[in-house]
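Page 47, continued from p. 46.
Same chain as before, 220 aa.
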Amino acid sequence: MEILAVRNLKKYYGSGESLIKAVDGISFSVEKGSFTAIVGTSGSGKTTLLNLIGGLDYADEGEVMIGGKSVLKMNDDERTVFRRRNIGFVFQNYNLISTLNIYKNITLPIRLDGNKPDGEYIRHICKTLGIEEKMESYPNQLSGGQQQRVAIARAIAAKPAVLLADEPTGNLDSRTGAEVMGLLKMTEKEFNQTIIMITHNEAIAQLADDIIHLEDGKLV
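Result:
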């Protein structure tokens, strides 16, 4: 079943000789429960594309459909609520809140939405990711790999339609990065999670089910 459809997506910056076509007429679709890697060099448009899919930026043209709903046609308030309920984010800088313990970091998006976290599901996620003993710890008490595990747990805690990962191994050594990739693959299978990851690393991308190559804002 198709969970994401990107249609003729465009995002340009500047004008005239300074025009940059960051995303230039991209179209593709993603099936539910699959793992897709978007690969390209720096400046190829990967992050811009991910931000457009996640509703963090506005497109000049085109459409992004998640679960049959057009993200780009929503107003700011609608988009904020939709993101919180349907899109999980994993960034290379973790983006954890230092003043909250691990459990509160993981459940924050759910609580911001006015809902009560599913305790059993949260425990299952944390056990699967190997951080069940860290719930009362704070981010600065964890290693980089552990913090990224927390970020993955937070991203899937609300059972999102898609999980968007922006260079999730970028700040990790190769061994820890491999562990994190293994965990992402495991969440795909264990929780039937749809994952879209951007990376410049072709070797990491090979772990995905499908690979999309970007160059100068276009699919190649």
